Amino acid sequence: MTEQNSVILLAELSFAAPVGEAVRTALDAVAAATRQESGCLEYAAHVHAEDPCRVFFYERWQDQAALDGHNGSAHLAAFRAVVGPLLARAPGLSFWRRLE
To answer: Is 99 helix (H, G, I), strand (E, B) or coil?
Structure first.
């Protein structure tokens, strides 16, 4: 596998209210489970430094098949069930590939 084959996903979630305990617990759970998935190279969530309603994910996957597997995982479905109703708008997703 080369770095050029890996898939980078940048995802931004905007919540209607500042991230609270329920969201933090859901973030911790999905991150811990996701990092154990085959093909997950990096997975990190960040809360915006100035806007506590925004969460940014940096995800790096071995390939598209690994990301597809993640998208069908039970822990991601559980995360979506918790945070979905709390979102101010649909998540912003962008996909990237490494150049070098």
So the answer is: coil
Please give the CATH topology (third level) of the domain spanning 17-96: Alpha-Beta Plaits (3.30.70)
- Domain positions in the chain: 17-96
pTM of the full structure: 0.89
Residue 59, burial from CB neighbour count under 10 angstroms (0-12, 13-18, 19+): buried
Tokens of residue 51, six digits: 């806007």
**Nearest residue to 58 (alpha-carbon basis) of 9, 3, 5, 7:** 9
Looking at the chain, how many residues does it have?
100
Instruction: Tell which wins on pLDDT, 99 or 13.
Output: 13
Q: Which of 63, 90, 70 is nearest to 8 (CA)?
A: 63
